Amino acid sequence: MAEELRGTFIEKGKGEAEFSEVEELIRQTLAESRGLAEKAAPAPKEKEEFKATTLPSAPKAPVIEKPKAAPEAKPQPEKPKEGTAPSGYEATFKEYKVGDIVQGKVIKVDHSGVLVDINYKADGLILPDELSERTFGSPEEIVRLGDVISVTIENIENKEGYVVLSKKRADYEKKWKFANDAYRTRAVLEGKVMQALQGGLVVDCAGVRGFVPASQVNKTNEESLNAFVGRTIPLKVIEVNQRQGKITLSHRLAAGEKSQVEVAKLLGELEVGQVRRGKVKNLKTFGAFVDLGGIEGLIHLSEISWQRVKHPSEVLKSGDEIDVFVLGVDRVNKKVSLGLKELQPDPWANAAELYKPGQVVKAKILRFAKFGAFAELERGLEGLIHISELSTQPVGKPDEAVKIGDVVDVKILRVLPAEQRIGLSVKKVILEREKKEAKKEESEAAQPPAEEKKVTIGDMIAEKERARAEKEYEETEVEGEAEEVT
Predict the structure, then answer these.
(1) Distance between CA 249 and CA 216 in Å, rounded?
(2) 299 closest CA partner among 335, 345, 259
(3) Does 158 score more than 50 pLDDT?
(4) Which residues form the S1 motif domain (predicted)?
(5) Does residue 72 lie in a domain region?
(6) Based on the structure, what is the number of domains in the chain?
(7) How far apart are CA 427 and CA 392, in angstroms?
(8) Considering the domain boundaries, does residue 446 fall inside one?
(9) Residue 86 has pLDDT above 90, yes or no
């Protein structure tokens, strides 16, 4: 029994030895696999460390250090091959194709054509026929040395190695692009009138020729189309027909739009207190209209002069060029209020020095109001005679006491320059005169009576003689009348 047990134990130990051999083989296989994986894996970060993978009951495998990676080599620029230009130099040239419109500088001009530097490996050549649509005697009439021009590429390279160019075609394309852009944006252009025809005007707008029909010319009935030749006028493109080669423009539309732009600009510049130069355009009963260069302002009748005027024509006439004072600007309603008297000496400035309360002066009755009469003093000032001061007797209306045009004596009651008012009185003058007369009469009555004149004998004889002569004269007259009756 013991031997069986012992034999069994031996067999068990033998199995354990075999198991240990298998375990050792597994560890070696794992170590080899780990080494191969580390060689194939990318370089780890500096902060990471490789640690051997351990099995639960197996000893630690040795740490395998990864060899340091060699520094990456910087790419070296390739050396250009002999006989070829460097790539950087080639990059300075632009790539063009037929039909491109490019900019170039004229480097040579002669009878055979024009050479143009277009920043390409070869210069461009413009033959004389491709310079311009208009006729010319010499290429120098179209371009000059050093000019920067627009050209169209017709051919990248001809037999001589030049790039074939056309200025005429580039100008043509540029013209239609200009016209189409102006039509699309509704821009206002400036054009010079080259010729007047029966049906309208031929104009040049920045090298582009167009036609303005007579119905689209902004003119007065007295003006003729020939009067516009040589003038520069505002224009708007109203039709572009490239197939027919026609560009139609309007002077009337552009003039109206330009006027609106000028008005807006002028309104933005106007400020109260400015002095502006203007031209009198129209006179009305209530004032005068003055053109300030695109917008008209009104000088109200009361602002024409410090003195009263019945109509603007007393001071102004149409066509007068005058300086005006800006009183107000209404940018919303586009109205401007102007003054003329503000630029004249203000008589009220020294009114208090000229007239003192209690002073008696002469005044001319100008007009009536319900509450009295306005009278003009010297130096253009006006004063008011209240209805209660027109007469010593009560009056219902001013014309019951005075008439327009009467020159009367008035007494200064008050002077208010800040309010431009002077109070006058006729009644005070009359009362003072009556008072003086009464005092004079009183003084005369208070004087002693004059001594009686003594009668002499001579006076008595003379009186008798005078009475006798008068009696004889009367008797003679009676006898003459009786004889006439007989």
Answers:
(1) 8
(2) 335
(3) yes
(4) 99-168, 186-252, 273-341, 358-427
(5) no
(6) 5
(7) 5
(8) no
(9) no
